[in-house]
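Hey everyone, long-time lurker, first post.

I ran two proteins through the pipeline my lab uses and got sequence/structure pairs for each. Pasting them in order. The first:
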Amino acid sequence: MNQSRTLTIANVQITLTQDSTSGSHATTIWPAGLLLSHYISSIYSSRAKHRSLPSLDQKSVVDLGSGTGICAIVASRVLGASWTFATDLSEHAKGILAANIAANRVAGDLPPARDVQQLSSSGTLDADVVVTSETPKTPRSSNPTRPAPPILASVPLDWLSPTLPPTLLPHLPFSLILGSDTLFSLALLPAFFRTLTALSGPRTIALLATESRDPAVIEEAWKEAARCGWFVKKLTWDKIRKTVGKLDEQWWEEVEGAQVFELKRKRG
């Protein structure tokens, strides 16, 4: 049964639909997603203190295993990324994720509609998403004196696929990669980190949040990350609380147990 939850992050109101009875983890707002969305909002609001963060003006962000889309929506609406892609398996990308993305777009959030039928039939994107693989690297605006609003889209992405969706290719490498609750299966870790690496470049920063469910999976995840050329830094709980700032204790209790990790590509 679908339920609606409204969140306020950096004075931006976000309304999300979730279904905790669907049997799928992808249709629920989990503590890791809540924590990561508030964390990225906080660090970008004080970016002068976080000089290693990439500017997102005219840059692209991809959210892996986006689920309800909370982190992708924050990246677009709060961080101001020029292009944000919320990715998940096809059945999720075309369900609650697509609905939440559509519900949280602002007016003029997409370029002019074209080739909608072609996109729909190819399965590359949902029919309501009109970003194509030929989308230019400059957002289009009907008023050339006013910056175009950010583009926000849901895109089916299977980590086990040997190729990336054509829609993502013009945006490689992504400046910022997000992921919450993506490290849950030993069997999927190699595919996840292959996908992460394929989407990244030397200056890409990845921020991953996860709950401490199975320490063995997390331990193996960082071994796989190292094999794929990533340096992993765990953010301390004290640093996260100091960065996010004043939120009520009930909120902190809800996200207790979630962790945030910063990943950067190793040089050389």
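...and the second, right after it:
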Amino acid sequence: MCKEKIHRLACDIVYSKEMESCEADSCLVQDLRKNLLVELEKLIPLPIVIPERRLEHLVESAVLDQIDTCLYHNSWDAVSLYKDHCCGRDQIPSETVQILMAHKNEVWFVQFSNSGKYLATASSDCTAIIWQVLDDNKVELKHTLESHQNPVSFVSWSPDDTKLLTCGNAEVLKLWDVDTGVLRHTFGNNNAGFTVSSCAWFPDSTRLVCGSSDPERGIVMWDTDGNEIKAWRGTRIPKVVDLAVTPDGESMITVFSDKEIRIFNLETKVERIISEEQPITSLSISGDGKFFIVNLSSQEIHLWDLAGEWKQPLKFSGHRQSKYVIRSCFGGLDSSFIASGSEDSQVYLWNLKKAKPLEVLSGHSMTVNCVSWNPRNPRMLASASDDQTIRIWGPGKPNRPENRLGDKKRLNQWFQEKSSCTKSTESIYYSYHTAQL
């Protein structure tokens, strides 16, 4: 088939002298000819005919490729086609913008609320504090929660942000009203010895689950009035290190006896077990419930998929952890980053595409125990430290031109090593994962 004749035919179909001189019903003729052209495209093979919307697809692919190669990409802003896309440190939280100093001892836990409008912290001074995030991203104290007799090491926000749970390894579980700061209920009591190491909410904000470091206490599901709904106890339920419930409420992830992760589907009752070689100190689940990370005492963070399709986890390293409980979290645009505390008093940030840290944030003077990324503001991060402070991190200063050139060179080198591009957070995880195997 002659390519020139095909192109000439297409031109005649789309345009004619009769249409120009208005000798025919131009609208009707145009519609008929467009339909004819569509039918001809189905009969003429590639590459003589360009596929429909091919240019749009190429432009979209070019934009996605630039986003995928940008390790600092953390913005909803549209990517321009008029220049190469390359974000800098001003897109991620990398500079201290506020220091909170209301606690009187080590701060062990920090967590933003689901709406991003509140922040909760827990301390070895036996208190927890609810902070409010203002419209200008400044943070101010809202309530100090004083009822615990021992250090508080864990908090959990209800999905609707109206209630807060607090607990500790040597403490009972308490439920607080966020608006008033009033204690609503204490689950168990100190005399009964029901100490809780971690807790989590179900999506309806009326049910919760907690795990105890005491093997005899196991795992208990309660309603907010303190009624026990279900319990898992016995020899199959050893010491609970940490636990989480997926956002859809279907699965419970539990870390048992340091090295074992159990994923239990509450509907099908199917259980999957993952065994790590090194002790696990903490667990964190992604916002979409498809992935979770665990911190290991071997100075690594492992990322697993909840569906069980991966044979090996993604591994991130660079921070320091050997003696203490260090907690990490997902964060940023589409949960494309991981943040973690460290025993060297610094905060570490990774892009999920790279195993080594993207940024190392200095400011604290002692071990950073926990970090939390604001789920509604991808450029806001909080960290809690043994130095008795909580630091709020905001966008850093833009990279210098020479640094941006170096970043671009490294990004181009990284991109050349990849055999495929990714188009979503899930595909980023998968592409990285398969590249590591």
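Reply from user beta_strand_b:
Welcome! Quick read of the second one: Residues 400-412, 414-437 have pLDDT under 50 and may be disordered. The CA atoms of residues 11 and 165 lie 70 Å apart.
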